């Protein structure tokens, strides 16, 4: 090719099937006008252009290069003119460049190198031998759902040819490709170039009108196979036959059989709206003739017709059946690919409605094995067990004789001691993790456990109570109310009305209703009457990685499911009543029956504030005191790890009983007034004149989170140089307990030097275990957040600095990660000794506070004497900033 040719770059970001057609146009351009053009491309699918002999590297900035955006206006006339899609881009180039290009081959132009051809196929890598196979695509993209055929019908085809054809299922991540049985499952495991190579090795292809159909024609067949690859296309009535079909394909269409496609393809996009805001949801783009969940044109195509088209290739001698040996080898690959994470991929805005409709069609009938009435409480872990203890005691005190199931997830959440404690109350403890082995679910955590426990509890009629719910009366009468008997479901209202613009309702195909949302602190259901919406609720929750982005927890998933399936329910007319830290619900006569402490859950340290108007509070507190006297809070599990810390060689050994704490406040220039106020507040406590060094943010990072993290790093470096026993990191917007220093040095984990990493501020972090006597709890590492007042041993500081770059995260995420690696517990002081003032964050973080902060709390003295633990400053806590304590300048930031 000469250097004098016209330089053009063809640009298109259409879908892969369209780009296959563009490869044909480039081929035909050069065949019809050899040597006249130097051509390069910019497309969405560079993999389709590998090894292409017609491309030359061109620079878009070269003034000799013409950039051409490729379009295909011919498609708008395809029902009236006898053209194939292969003519589309050539017509455009002819008009654009004044040429007369004509197609030179009835296929796209995909090239494979000799090296690629020599590689084993992905199928042979699994079977261990050259096994014939057909590729099957049983789904498609979510933006054009009208082209899908029914997965059960694809399955019927696969089952018919079992032992004769081995199907290999493919599908791109993020698209709809439901799992087929008996196939080699490569969904999500073939990038576009890998798919091209797989097609090269394939004996045949079964699909709808999609990119795979075009590749079946465009990719050459390997030696030993017929030159024209068998391909059966389930097409329906969307596209006209002459526009899409290839001569050697079996193109099963219904164009002309229905009024909607009597004059050609209808070119509509969706069977049902998806609620994703895409213009394809508009009426002019929706199917006019729907049969169940399929467009009528696809519903008319039966599995028997597809089977007969494939059988024709056998009858004509184009293909042969698998030998017994090949079938056995293929089964080996089927088994090897049986588990595929493709099915665990999160839902998307486009996929959720289709996936939910498919699930609804498969909801099984009510199993009928459940009996009687009972109460279900999800109360695993220290926090929720503490609340469940109060709830259970209260129920029995009220005379409620209903059986109770206490659900949890694993032994760590409810050990043998905890089980034995509730056994005298007639409580059966159920491990959801064990039940899950028999009834698998995709995701099962805290909120998800609630609908799961309802479904699989032994009761037919269930009253679900949140662990932090306090009944005011015996709730058993609710089962006999006319409203429950009529509907089989009672839900209680939440605050406000539904938001009409909340998109999740559109995603799920549920019309907006101006009604109260659900509050799921208490739910009453008859599983026999409500089995279908309860199953759908569970499906919403096992896909919580999508739904919890759009609704708050589990409560609205019940609402969505009941409205989606038009299942009736009853709701008491009196609205929810708010108390500070709690909310009250009423029966159908307007009497208070439940007090849900959703904002101020009971805790073992009894730091709960007294709530005015909360009934039976003194009685509830007596249950907590009883629990404190009979239970260790689970701390025994961590004592060996706490004792082990001083044995490490890097932990400072006490010499004279003193605990030396080096305090560093992390701040920035913009927060000078906040910082001054915080230092003044600290000086007003018994911290007095002890030193607080200041570390200002002087970095050049534009990202605020990075700047704050690196400022903390510099503070830790300086603290390490101090030779102290501990480094105390403080933020600059705090209030302090009046006896801050006294409480600090009398904190048992600190003065016993068993503390490696702790916090003096608790923004409602989940505890793993509580030590009431010594005023601390061990935190769940994944739940830790906030870096308002962190206390680190020198061993922890050294380890953190050494491994700083191994994890990119803010400090309050880094430190728990490192604590887990070191094997040390994360200890939180109880109650919090500092409070976070609600001032605007410099990096956009959400506001939070410590609910257990007590400005006047004072610990009993049990630590070593305070003998100048830190040198006092000149009269008051001062800002101490020197050049060596600024962050160093960084290059290449």
Architecture overview:
- The protein has an eight-stranded mixed beta sheet with strand order 23-22-24-29-26-30-28-27, with helices on both faces. A six-stranded parallel beta sheet has the order 6-5-4-7-8-9, sandwiched between helices.
- The protein is of the alpha/beta class and 893 residues long.
- The model is unreliable at 644-656 and 863-893 (pLDDT under 50).
- A hairpin with a 5-residue loop joins β20 (582-586) and β21 (592-596).
- Helix content is 31%, strand content 16%.
- α13 packs across α22, α16 (446-456) packs antiparallel against α19 and α25 (704-721) crosses α28 (794-802).
Question: What is the approximate shape?
Answer: globular
How many DSSP helices? Answer: 29
Largest sheet: 8 strands, mixed
| C-alpha Rg (nearest Å) | 34 Å
Strand tally, please? 31
In terms of DSSP E residues, the strand content is: 15-25%
Strand ordering within the main sheet = 23-22-24-29-26-30-28-27
Rounded mean pLDDT score: 91
List keywords for this structure.
eight-stranded mixed sheet; globular; alpha/beta; six-stranded parallel sheet; 893 residues
Write the layout of secondary structure elements.
Blueprint: E1 6-12, H1 16-32, E2 37-43, E3 65-69, H2 86-97, H3 114-118, H4 122-127, E4 134-136, H5 151-160, E5 167-169, E6 184-185, H6 192-201, E7 204-208, H7 211-218, E8 231-236, H8 241-244, E9 250-253, E10 290-291, E11 294-295, H9 296-299, H10 303-315, H11 324-336, H12 352-361, E12 373-378, H13 381-397, E13 404-408, H14 416-422, E14 427-431, H15 432-438, H16 446-456, E15 461-466, E16 469-471, H17 482-487, E17 489-493, H18 504-507, E18 518-526, H19 527-542, H20 544-547, H21 555-564, E19 577-579, E20 582-586, E21 592-596, H22 617-630, H23 636-644, E22 661-667, H24 672-683, E23 693-696, H25 704-721, E24 726-730, E25 734-736, H26 740-745, H27 748-751, E26 757-759, E27 767-771, E28 776-779, E29 789-793, H28 794-802, H29 811-822, E30 826-829, E31 834-836
Parallel strand pairs: 1-2, 1-3, 4-5, 4-7, 5-6, 7-8, 8-9, 12-13, 12-15, 13-14, 22-23, 22-24, 26-30
Antiparallel strand pairs: 10-11, 15-18, 16-21, 17-18, 19-20, 20-21, 24-29, 25-31, 26-29, 27-28, 28-30
Helix pairs in contact: 1-2, 1-7, 5-10, 13-22, 16-19, 19-21, 25-28
């Amino acid at each position: 090719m000469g250097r004098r040719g016209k330089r053009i770059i063809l640009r298109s970001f259409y879908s892969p099937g369209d780009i296959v057609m563009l490869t044909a146009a480039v081929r035909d351009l050069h065949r019809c006008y050899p040597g006249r053009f130097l051509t390069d491309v910019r497309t969405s699918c560079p993999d389709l252009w590998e090894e292409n002999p017609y491309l030359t590297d061109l620079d878009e900035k070269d003034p000799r290069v013409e950039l051409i955006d490729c379009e295909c206006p011919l498609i708008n006339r395809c029902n009236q003119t006898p053209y194939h899609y292969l003519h589309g881009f050539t017509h455009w180039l002819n008009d654009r460049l004044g040429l007369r290009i004509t197609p030179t081959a009835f296929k796209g132009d995909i090239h494979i190198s000799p090296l690629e051809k020599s590689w084993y196929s992905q199928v042979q890598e699994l079977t261990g031998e050259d096994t014939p196979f057909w590729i099957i695509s049983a789904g498609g993209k979510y933006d054009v759902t009208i082209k899908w055929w029914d997965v059960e019908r694809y399955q019927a085809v696969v089952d018919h040819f079992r032992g004769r054809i081995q199907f290999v299922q493919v599908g791109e991540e993020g698209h709809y490709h439901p799992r087929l049985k008996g196939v080699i499952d490569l969904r999500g495991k073939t990038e576009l170039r890998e798919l091209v190579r797989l097609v090269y090795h394939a004996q045949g292809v079964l699909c709808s009108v999609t990119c795979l159909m075009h590749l079946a024609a465009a990719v050459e067949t390997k030696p030993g196979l017929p030159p024209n690859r068998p391909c059966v296309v389930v097409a329906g009535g969307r596209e006209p036959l002459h526009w899409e079909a290839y001569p050697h394909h079996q193109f099963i269409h219904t164009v002309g059989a229905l009024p909607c496609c009597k004059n050609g393809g209808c070119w509509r996009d969706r069977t049902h709206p998806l609620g994703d805001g895409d213009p394809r949801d508009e009426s002019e783009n929706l199917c006019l003739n729907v049969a169940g969940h399929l467009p009528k044109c696809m519903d008319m195509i039966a599995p028997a017709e597809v089977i007969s088209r494939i059988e024709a290739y056998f009858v004509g001698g184009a293909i042969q059946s698998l030998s017994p040996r090949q079938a056995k080898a293929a089964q080996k690959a089927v088994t090897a690919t049986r588990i595929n994470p493709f099915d665990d991929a999160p839902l998307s805005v486009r996929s959720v409605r289709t996936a939910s409709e498919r699930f609804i069609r498969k909801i099984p009938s009510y199993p009928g094995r459940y009996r009687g009435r009972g109460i279900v409480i999800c109360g695993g872990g220290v926090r929720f067990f503490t609340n469940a203890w109060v709830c259970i005691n209260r129920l029995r005190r009220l005379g409620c004789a209903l059986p109770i199931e206490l659900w949890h997830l694993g032994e760590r959440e409810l050990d043998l001691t905890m089980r034995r404690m509730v056994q005298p109350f007639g409580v059966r403890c159920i491990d959801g993790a064990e039940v899950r082995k028999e009834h698998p679910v995709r995701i099962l955590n805290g909120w998800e456990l609630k609908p799961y426990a309802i479904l699989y509890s032994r009761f037919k009629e269930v009253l679900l109570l949140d662990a932090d719910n306090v009944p005011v009366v015996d709730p058993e009468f609710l089962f006999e109310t006319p409203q429950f008997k009529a509907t089989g479901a009672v839900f209680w209202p939440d605050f406000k009305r539904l938001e009409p613009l909340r998109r999740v309702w559109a995603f799920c195909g549920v019309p907006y209703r101006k009604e109260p949302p659900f509050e799921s602190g208490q739910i009453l259901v008859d599983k026999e009457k409500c089995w279908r919406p309860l199953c759908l609720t569970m499906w919403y929750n096992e896909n919580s990685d999508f739904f919890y982005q759009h609704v708050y927890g589990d409560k609205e998933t019940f609402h969505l499911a009941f409205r989606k399936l038009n299942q009736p329910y009853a709701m008491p007319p009196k609205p929810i009543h708010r108390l500070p830290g709690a909310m009250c619900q009423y029966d159908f006569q307007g009497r208070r029956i439940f007090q849900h402490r959703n904002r101020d859950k009971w805790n073992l340290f009894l730091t709960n504030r007294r709530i005015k108007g909360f009934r039976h509070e003194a009685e509830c507190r007596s249950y907590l005191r009883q629990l404190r006297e009979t239970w260790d809070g689970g701390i025994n599990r961590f004592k060996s790890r706490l004792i082990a810390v001083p044995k490490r060689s890097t932990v400072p050994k006490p010499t004279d009983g003193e605990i030396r704490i080096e305090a560093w406040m992390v701040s920035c220039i913009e927060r000078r007034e906040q910082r001054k106020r915080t230092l003044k507040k600290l000086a007003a406590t018994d911290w007095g004149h002890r030193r607080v060094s200041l570390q200002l943010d002087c970095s050049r990072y534009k990202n605020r989170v990075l700047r704050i993290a690196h400022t903390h790093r510099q503070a830790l470096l300086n603290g390490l140089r101090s030779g102290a026993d501990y480094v105390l990191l403080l933020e600059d917007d705090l209030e302090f307990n009046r006896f801050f220093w006294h409480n600090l040095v009398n904190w048992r984990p600190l003065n016993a030097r068993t503390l490696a990493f702790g916090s003096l501020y608790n923004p409602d972090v989940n505890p793993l275990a509580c030590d009431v006597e010594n005023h601390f709890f061990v935190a769940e590492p994944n739940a830790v957040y906030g870096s308002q007042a962190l206390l680190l041993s020198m061993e922890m500081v050294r380890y953190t600095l050494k491994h700083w770059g191994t994890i990119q995260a803010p400090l309050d995420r880094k430190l728990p990660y490192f604590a887990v690696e070191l094997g040390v517990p994360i200890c939180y002081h109880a109650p919090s000794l500092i409070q976070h003032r609600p001032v605007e964050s410099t990096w956009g973080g959400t506001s939070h506070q410590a609910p257990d902060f007590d400005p006047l709390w004072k610990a009993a003295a049990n630590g070593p004497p305070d003998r100048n633990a830190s040198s006092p400053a000149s009269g008051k806590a001062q800002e101490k900033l020197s050049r060596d304590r600024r962050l160093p300048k960084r290059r290449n930031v």
